[in-house]
Design a protein that fits this description.
By secondary structure, this protein is an alpha/beta fold. It is built from ten helices and seven strands. It folds into two domains: 50 residues; 204 residues, 3-Layer(aba) Sandwich (Glycerol-3-phosphate (1)-acyltransferase), CATH 3.40.1130. A seven-stranded mixed sheet has the order 1-7-6-2-5-3-4, sandwiched between helices.
């Protein structure tokens, strides 16, 4: 989306430059380049306005949707837009380990709101939906868009509701509908410890779906907010391991939880 907006900025500048004859002298070049930047900013602002309106419309009905490919694309492109304007790049290691023809459960440590943004834009599992806390679905831009993209809310304080979400997520993987992401820590880690305790229930999705489990280690997302926009941040995503479906099916959730936690700790 950022490149599309850049192209639109350049084309708009060309459209203005030609009738104004800004191409006739070399000293008009800075003015033309300035127009390119200016029109890019205008188009970027218009896209943000579009996303705000779209998110508000989609959030009128507080319901769950199946993953919509159009809104999956919009969600991904909007997240790339956020990374660009926060001066953030993402480096991925071990991406070749991810299964190409199977739906998976994906888990990682949780440092900041930039974790799902980095993962959604750089982990090649499509579609990919996130399980997140209910309040995230009320955010002005993101809420409605991710709702239509198929993301699911989980209320960990309401055990019955959480179980319903876990079962639905497992069914979506089992039916080949989508891959699913969940943070087993349950919340962002704001402590000095590398990892919070894991919620074993997150791994029930994998054991019920009998699917591969992709284990990620995330670094530096907690630095983005502190550095934006003046300092560049490189976020690191490492595919630590992929536990095959056959092995997942034979393990208990507590065993999976302990093994995955050790793998992420070692990678961090």
């Amino acid at each position: 989306m950022v490149y599309i907006l850049m192209a639109m900025g350049v084309l708009t500048a060309i459209g203005v430059a030609i009738p104004c004859h800004l191409y006739t002298q070399w000293y008009h070049i800075p003015a033309f380049l300035g127009m390119c930047v200016g029109f890019f900013i205008i188009w970027a602002a218009l896209y943000l306005l579009f996303a705000l309106i779209l998110g508000a419309i989609c959030n009128i009905k507080k319901v769950e949707y199946d993953p919509d490919p159009v809104f999956q694309w919009i969600a991904t492109e909007t997240m790339k837009y956020i990374l660009f304007f926060t001066n953030t790049s993402v480096k991925v290691e071990g991406i070749e380990k991810i299964p190409k023809d199977e739906k998976c459960l994906v888990v990682s440590n949780h440092l900041s709101n930039y974790d799902p943004i980095s993962i959604m834009t750089h982990i090649p599992l499509k579609p990919l939906i996130f399980i997140s806390k209910p309040e995230n679905f009320n955010l002005p831009v993101a809420g409605g868009i991710v709702r239509k993209a198929g993301f699911m809310a989980i209320d960990r304080d309401q055990v019955k509701n959480a179980i319903v979400t876990i079962n639905k997520a497992a069914d979506k993987i089992k039916n080949g509908q989508t891959s699913v992401f969940i943070f087993p820590e349950g919340t962002r880690n704001r402590t000095e410890e590398k990892l919070l305790e894991f919620k074993n229930g997150a791994f029930k999705i994998a054991t019920k779906a009998k699917c591969p489990l992709v284990v990620l280690a995330v670094k530096n997302t907690n630095l983005v907010k502190k550095r934006t926009p003046w300092r560049h941040t490189t976020v690191s995503l490492k595919v630590v391991d992929v536990i095959p479906a056959e092995r997942v099916a034979k393990m208990k959730t507590a065993e999976l939880s302990d093994e995955v936690r050790e793998k992420i700790l070692e990678a961090l």
